[in-house]
Amino acid sequence: MKKKTFVLTAVMVAVLALTGCGKKNNDDTLVMATNAEFPPYEYYEGQDIVGIDVEIAEAIADKLGMTLKIEDMAFDSIITSVQTGKADIGLAGLTVEPDRLENVDFTDSYTTAAQVIIVKEDSEVTTPDEMTGKTVGVQLGTTGDMYAEDIKDVTVERYNKGFEAVQSLIQGKIDGVIIDREPAKVFVSENEGLKIVDQEFTLEDYAIAVAKDNTELKDKVNEVLAELKESGKLQEIIDKYIAAE
């Protein structure tokens, strides 16, 4: 069966904004807000957005008898999009954080992740504390952004995309990049001269953002997640993109 997934184009988004229309999707459409700059969770493969979060959303939509629609946007717009009803769910490697819980609810966790620090291969940094007094790059609105200033006397440079922070590191403009472990592995594998600091910066749970007044959808998604875990399908999706350590 052909996958029932498509990406909402920038043109369509602009038209909706200009006409002042809110999200007026059919009841059988599940709108997912994401930032497709976060491999292996969501990223572009040609014109298509693929990755762990996409396949999880597809599985949820299929179980609910719905069609998945993906909206790619700036990371720091995802929570607002869900909160205001422009999207039904937010899937983008989102960590359950108190600040986010003020605006949206979260489903049960579907995986555990870690924040790590990327540095140049010749760097002597071996722990996050050794970034004291240095300059780190983060993606705006991420948990790396939230926690970066926990490092003593650190200077934080914020970027719209993780890739932009990594490029600044390569160019010697910053001393390290705080980012999620799996994207970090991708960036290090694709760019010579970089490494990941052995000691993790933080451990965190990823979950799906849902509007606070949409308890029915949250309950349904939790039911599907439980089924995916029980059947082994969830781990199968994760293993497809992340090789066992």
Report what the structure shows.
The protein has helices at 10-19, 52-63, 78-83, 98-101, 143-147, 162-170, 181-190, 215-231, 233-241; strands at residues 5-7, 29-34, 37-38, 42-45, 48-50, 67-72, 89-90, 104-106, 111-120, 135-139, 155-159, 176-180, 194-196, 202-206, 209-211. It is of the alpha/beta class. Strand 3 (37-38) and strand 4 form a beta hairpin. Mean pLDDT is 89; it is low at 1-24.
Write the SSE topology.
Layout: E1 5-7, H1 10-19, E2 29-34, E3 37-38, E4 42-45, E5 48-50, H2 52-63, E6 67-72, H3 78-83, E7 89-90, H4 98-101, E8 104-106, E9 111-120, E10 135-139, H5 143-147, E11 155-159, H6 162-170, E12 176-180, H7 181-190, E13 194-196, E14 202-206, E15 209-211, H8 215-231, H9 233-241
Parallel strand pairs: 1-6, 2-6, 2-7, 10-11, 10-12
Antiparallel strand pairs: 3-4, 4-5, 7-15, 8-15, 9-12, 9-13, 9-14
Describe the global form. globular
Number of distinct beta strands: 15
Number of helices: 9
- Average per-residue pLDDT, rounded, comes to 89
Terminal CA distance reads 33 Å
- The parts where pLDDT drops under 50 for at least 5 residues are 1-24
Main β sheet profile: 6 strands, mixed
Label the structural class: alpha/beta
> In percent, how helical is the residue content?
25-40%
**What's the helix-strand series?**
EHEEEEHEHEHEEEHEHEHEEEHH
Oligomer: single chain
User: How much is the radius of gyration in Å?
Assistant: 18 Å
As laid out across the biggest beta sheet, the strand order is 1-6-2-7-15-8
How much of the residues is beta strand, in percent?
25-35%
